[in-house]
Design a protein that fits this description.
This protein is of the alpha/beta class. It has 24 helices and 27 strands.
């Protein structure tokens, strides 16, 4: 049935309306029984249910229901698989229906600006296009089951340090291209029911009361029509927040902020129509869920199997010197490390799932072969246990192959605080090095939510990046290690050699009051590739047990307008001897020189399955945004006229095919001419070029660049080429010195040039 929400709101008292704008408690919204408004519940996510009943809290201190922990976003992003994220979202939606949850809090799309952010395990990528695509698929999957999502944390929340008060200082272009872009496509395409605003300030104003962010951008530009909720405890000024576009405060405040809203309406500080609109937005989503209830299904065992499948598709094989896949018989294999028996498969904090079962690698390997086991290290403190170390080294010596399960313990990364370094525990690094000394056939399996330094990488033959891959991580690890499944994940972030290589290194996490994003748009691979800096493993990188060849890159047109859609196709062939999946990445390189930009940016991707010897044609599309950068002069996206390279790649560092297309801009950046406009700027503009070219000869004469009578020594000191460069860099005001023009004459010239620039002459 279709509810007349406006009519319901008209029947509500002022106090009831104010009450709808904050939670009843930690997880419930308030009901109004006399008007048929039900109480609904929200729950933490995003990779499983953290439904709490009694003694509810936000950071996962108290126990929640038994549920299924799917792989976290740091892992699933490496799948580069929209369909897989949709399927996982569907399953989570089913679980929510079974548990009567109206909204699950997630996905989280904040950009991985620094490897140190304590919550990186919940975030998808350093790349906004990849993050937005994964998020949109996840949202569509969950909401196909008539359960709401809450994309978070909006916006520029890229650290845990002082997250509730620090101001993220970001210029407009960087904010648009990197930090808002991850949200934009996900919101436009995925259409989440809710958006969760972040704790932090953005350029001095709290996100929770930022009208530009919550109304002008989110609603007016992007068309969002759900409700905005606060992160838990993010509200600073409740009335200002409501005016800005923050509908729901979570959790409840015991009625205090509700009364502030009532008082503001009564004293004229807040128009009641603003409150009415907020309540309508909340009720629309409440009734969407309750009136469209579906039969829920929560088959934990079946969901556990899906969690294993997602993990298999997401783990990344970083190194393989012929050691993998492992033989199922004929070799003695040692599993070493605490994480082989008790895997770390999720992060700490509000997303922590109370898993109903956990499959470790030691559990899973029993169905394949016999292995020996040694613990190797303790996870409770970073201190070498000599007895455990000796036992592990001996086990490795006696085996033909050693597989070390290592990574970051819970205490090293969690919501609420950032890491202080990028290292693994010293005791684990020592263990890996000691074992590599006695066993040449060593493989390392990593459990971590963010990149780690790998001082032992050259000492081992294989490295499998398992990230935090959910409660079935051990099953996926064993399937990949023994070749039952073929690795097909690729890195959604760069792994640098060391922390100081990261572009945010000098400005993270700030002084506690502000954090300056001085690296601008050069985040992740945009920085490393543009600087031509070597990294341990590049963005988009991942190995397989087979090989792939790319050929026949085709584009639908060599010349397009910025309003056109470019179709791109290429052939991919499995040139190895086993079936596998390849992730083909499409980057765009701007060759116009119109703006300072990264050397290339990811703009599309496709994942394709191929049997041995099989070849398929894959197709992708590029639109205006694929070529554009955010121009602050026009406050819009702009693709300059000129050449762009289309790059088909296996990673950001592994470009396989190239094709150049010419794009013609249908919009133009207005030119404002003033005393400090340079000659080169005027020469670059076709409308002003003709006016200024008529003056260059005379200018060069005055600057000593054209007279044949100049002495040889003077000619060597000021060559024609030097004079021309000096001229190009000269502002119009310099014509007083070089041309003898008066200020009034220059102003007349400016008027003439401006008319030409505007097309009036």
């Amino acid at each position: 049935m279709k509810r007349d929400v406006k009519a319901i709101v008209k029947q509500m008292t002022l106090e009831e309306k104010a009450g709808m704008c904050s939670g009843k408690d930690f997880w419930h919204l308030k009901s109004v029984e006399r008007l048929g408004i039900p109480e609904v519940m929200v729950s933490d996510g995003p990779h499983g249910l953290r439904k709490q009943a009694e003694e509810a809290d936000h950071l996962g201190i108290n126990e929640s229901i038994k549920a299924v922990c799917f792989p976290t976003a740091c892992a699933t992003a490496c799948s580069f698989d929209r369909d897989l994220l949709f399927e996982m979202g569907q399953r989570i939606g089913d679980e929510c229906q079974a548990e009567n949850l109206s909204v699950i809090l997630g996905p989280a799309v904040n950009i991985k600006r620094s490897p140190l952010c304590g919550r990186n395990f919940e975030y998808f990528s350093e790349d906004p296009y990849l993050a937005s695509q994964m998020a949109a698929a996840h949202i569509k999957g969950v909401q196909s089951k008539n359960v709401g999502t809450s994309i978070k944390h909006f916006a520029a929340n890229n650290q845990e340090h002082r997250r509730m008060s620090s101001s993220s200082e970001v210029d407009e272009r960087t904010l648009r291209e990197i930090y808002l872009s991850a949200f934009e496509t996900a919101i436009k395409e995925g259409k989440p029911d809710t958006v969760m605003c972040s704790y932090n300030k953005i350029n001095g104003e709290f996100a929770s009361e930022n009208h530009w962010l919550l109304t002008e951008v989110l609603r007016d530009e992007w068309g969002f029509d759900g409700y905005v909720m606060s992160d838990w405890g993010a509200v600073n000024d409740r009335v200002k927040g409501l005016k800005a576009g923050l509908e729901l405060e979570m959790p409840g405040s015991g009625g205090h902020t509700d009364q502030e809203i009532v008082n503001a309406v009564k004293n004229g500080e807040l128009e009641e129509s603003v409150l009415d609109t907020a309540v309508e937005r909340i009720l629309n989503i409440v009734f969407k869920f309750t009136d469209g209830r579906q039969e829920g299904k929560f088959d934990k065992e079946d969901d556990h199997k899906l969690a294993a499948k997602v993990a298999e598709e997401s783990m990344v094989l970083l190194k393989n010197e012929g050691i993998l896949p492992l033989p199922k018989e004929g070799k003695k294999i040692a599993f070493i490390g605490k994480f082989a028996k008790n895997p770390r498969f999720q992060g700490g904090g509000s997303s922590h799932i109370n898993s109903f079962k956990i499959t470790s690698a030691l559990d899973a390997v029993k169905d394949i072969t016999e292995v020996t086991y040694a613990q190797g290290y303790d996870i409770h403190e970073d201190k070498t246990d000599e007895a455990l170390l000796a036992e592990a080294v001996q086990a490795a010596k006696e085996a033909d192959i050693a597989v070390i399960f290592a990574g970051l313990p819970d205490l090293f990364e969690s919501e609420g605080y950032d890491r202080t370094h990028m290292r693994m525990p010293n005791c684990q690094n020592e263990l890996i090095s000691k074992i590599a000394e006695v066993q040449e056939n060593t493989v390392v399996v990593l459990h971590n939510g963010s990149p780690v330094e790998m001082p032992w990488a050259d000492q081992v033959k294989g490295i499998l990046e398992a990230y935090l891959c959910g409660q079935a991580a051990g099953q996926a690890e064993v399937n990949l290690l023994f070749g039952i499944a073929n690795p097909c994940g690729k890195l959604a972030e760069t792994i640098p050699y060391k922390l100081s290589d990261n572009p945010s290194y000098l400005n993270f996490p700030g002084d506690g009051q502000t954090v300056e994003y001085k690296e601008g748009v050069f985040v992740g691979y945009r920085y490393y590739d543009t600087k031509e800096m070597p990294v341990r493993y590049p963005f988009g990188y991942g190995l397989s047990y087979t090989t792939f060849a790319y050929s026949d890159l085709q584009v639908s047109s060599q010349e397009i307008k910025d309003t056109d859609t470019l179709k791109v196709s290429l052939k991919v062939k499995n040139t190895g001897n086993c079936a596998g999946k390849e992730i083909v990445q499409l980057y765009v390189a701007d060759k116009t020189g119109a703006a300072i930009r990264p050397v290339k940016e990811l703009k599309n991707f496709v994942k394709v399955f191929l049997n041995p010897g099989e070849e398929k044609t894959v197709e992708m599309e590029l639109d205006k945004r694929s070529f554009a950068w955010y121009c602050t002069a026009i406050h819009d996206w702009y693709a300059a006229t000129g050449d762009y390279e289309i790059l088909a790649a296996a990673s950001s560092k592994d470009i396989r095919l190239r094709k150049t297309v010419h794009v013609t801009a249908t919009a133009e950046i207005p030119m404002k001419i003033h005393m400090n406009t340079t000659v080169s700027e005027l020469l670059e503009n076709p409308r002003t070029r003709e006016v200024i070219q008529g003056m260059t000869g005379s200018l060069l004469e005055h600057m000593g660049g054209t007279s044949e009578e100049k002495a040889d020594a003077a000619s060597e000191a000021i060559s024609p080429e030097m004079s021309l460069k000096m001229l190009e860099n000269s502002p119009l005001r310099s014509f007083r010195s070089f041309m003898g023009m008066t200020t009034e004459e220059i102003q007349e010239l400016i008027v003439k040039l401006q008319k030409a620039a505007d097309g009036e002459e």
